[in-house]
Amino acid sequence: MQRITTVRSALGAVxxxxxxxxxxxxxxxxxxxxxxxxxVSSQQWIASEAGARVLAEGGNAxxxxxxxxxxxxxxxxxxxxxxxxxxxxxxxxSGQATTIDFRExxxxxxxxxMWLDENGEYSSQMHHRSHLAVxxxxxxxxxxxxxxxxxxxxxxxLVQPAVSLAEDGFVLSEALAGSIGRxxxxxxxxxxxxxxxxxxxxxxxxxxxxxxxxxxSLARIRDDRWYGFYAGExxxxxxxxxxxxxxxxxxxxxxxYRAQERTPVQGTYRGYDIISMPPPSSGGxxxxxxxxxxxxYDVGAMGHNSAEYIHYLAEAMRRAFRDRxxxxxxxxxxxxxxxxxxxxxxxxxxxxxxxxxxxSVSHPTDVQMRPESPETxxxxxxxxxxxAVSVTYTLESGYGxxxxxxxxxxxxxxxxxxxxxxxxxxxxxxxxxxEPNLARPQQRxxxxxSPSIVAKDGELVAVVGSPGGRTIINTTLQLIxxxxxxxxxxxxxxxxxxxxxQWLPDRVRIETDGASAEAVQALExxxxxxxxxxxQGSANxxxxxxxxxxxIGAPDPRSPDSGARAGGRxxxxxxxxx
Length: 578
Ligand code: DON
Prior knowledge:
Layout: H1 2-23, E1 33-35, E2 38-42, H2 45-56, H3 61-75, E3 85-91, E4 97-102, H4 124-128, H5 139-150, H6 155-168, E5 170-171, H7 174-186, H8 190-196, E6 208-209, H9 212-224, H10 227-230, H11 232-245, H12 251-256, E7 260-262, E8 265-269, E9 272-276, H13 283-294, H14 299-302, H15 307-327, H16 338-341, H17 344-351, E10 376-383, E11 388-394, E12 452-456, E13 459-464, H18 471-484, H19 490-495, E14 499-500, E15 508-510, H20 517-525, E16 530-532, E17 541-544, E18 551-554, E19 563-566, E20 572-573
Parallel strand pairs: 15-16
Antiparallel strand pairs: 1-18, 1-20, 2-10, 2-19, 3-4, 3-11, 4-7, 5-6, 8-9, 9-12, 10-11, 12-13, 13-17, 14-15, 17-18
Helix pairs in contact: 1-2, 1-6, 2-3, 2-6, 3-5, 3-6, 6-9, 7-8, 13-15, 13-17, 13-18, 15-20
C-alpha cells in the first residue's frame, strides 16, 4: 500500500511537470548542455526533458534512457516507438559494460521465400511495405529487461511521462506538424490517418497533438510491464490487425518475444576503448574493424576531410562493408566470426592492398544495395555517477510499415525488410540473397545500428551513435575519429561534415559542403566516384569534459527538434572541453 501511494504521488509530480513542459515549447535549441548531474541528448528535446527529469529525481542513466525512449514513442513518431526494436549499450562506472538486444524477430511462420508472390517472383512491396514486413516488436521487452537488470527508479514513473504526453498532448513544432501531415496524407490505413491528422485535416505547427489510443497502450505497459504489451489487449489488437491485413504475427509470437543481454563488441584505437553492439547488429564489428585498419596511419596529420583522409576512410569502409555483407547476421543462427573480424591481424590483412594513390574497385557482383531512409533515432544518457547508456532504436523506415494498430495508436515496424530478399536472389538490381541473413522463424534481422561508448584509461570519454541505415556505422566511426584524431570537442565532432562508402554501390558520398572542390577533384583523379549533397545522420551524443568530469550533451544540429537537457541543477550551456 505504501508503495502504491508513493508511486501515485510520483506520477502526480510527473504529470504536473509535463504540463509545465508543454507550456514551454519554444525552449528548444541545439546548444550543448553541460552538467555534473547527468545529461540526456536526443533527437527530440521534449523526450530529452522527460529523461533529464528522471535523472533529477534520482533515477540512474538506465532509468532515464527508458523514460526518454518511451517519450520519443510519443513525440518523435517517425522513429521513436513501442512497435519497433533496437539496441542499448551500457557502461558502468566500474568500466564493465553490457548490451541489451531488443531487435525485432521473425515470427514463427516466417521463411526465406515469404516475399515471393504467387508467380514465384520477389515482391519488394511485400518485403518492405506490407503486413509481411512487420517483425515481432522488441522495444517494450528491451526496456523491461534493462530496468529489471539495471534500473533503480519505479517502473511506472518511467512510462508515465509518455502516457501524459500522449494523453494531454504536446505542442507540435513546424517540422513535426509537416512530417505527420505528409504521412497521414499518403497513408492507405484508416487508423494511421486518424492517429496523425484531425479526421483527415492536417495539424498545424503550434497545435496540441493528442494520441489517446497510444496513451492507453502506454498505460497498459506502465501497469503491467512486458505483459502490458505482449499479452492481453495490446497483443490481441496486434494479432487482429495482422489477420485483417494478411500478416503472420500471432499472439504466440508476441508471447515468445524476449530481449537478450549480450556481451559487447570491444576494440581499442590509439589507447581508447571502443564498446559497441554485437550481432545481430553489424555496427560494432564494422566500426572496430575500420578503426583497426586506420590505426597504422597518421590520420590526424592528413587534415579533416582532405582528399587523402577521405580516400583512406573510403578504403577502410569499402573493406568493412564487404565483410559485413559476407559474414554478418544474427549469431544465434549463423556462425559469425566476431573475434576474427575485429582482430588487428584481420585489419592488417584487409588493408594490405590499400593504394595511397588509387581507389580500389568493389568486386565482384555490381550489386547495389537497397537505398535506405534516415529514419531511426539515437540518444545518449550519462548520469551523475558516470553510468553511460547509448540507445539506437527504430521502426526501420520513417513511420515504419505505416500501419497504426487500430485501437492501440502505435505504428508497427517494417524491419523484416532488413532480412535478405530470398535464397540466391543476389542480382544486379540490388537484391541480396546470401544465406546467413535469410528470414527464419525467431531469427533477428541484420542491423547497422551502432550505439557505442568510448572510454580511456578506465574513464568514460563519450557516448555516441546515429540513425541512417548503413550510414550509421560510418557516422559513428567519424565521431570517434573526430575526437581522437582531430581533437574536436563533442559539439564539433557531432557538427562536422560526414562521408559514407558502403562497398556497393562503389561511390563516396560527402555531405553538402563537406569537402573542398579541390578535394573532390583529387578524389576523382584517384578513381573514386564522388557524390556531394544531403545530410547524414543525427548523432545526439554526450562527451565528458576531461578536466571537470562534467557530461556535455551535444544534440545534432541537423535535426530540427533535437535537444540536450541536464539532469541536475548544475546544468549550464557548454563551452569547450570534450
Ligand atoms: O537496423 C537497421 O540497420 C535499419 N533498420 C535502421 C533503419 C534506419 O536507420 C533508417 N533507414 N533505413
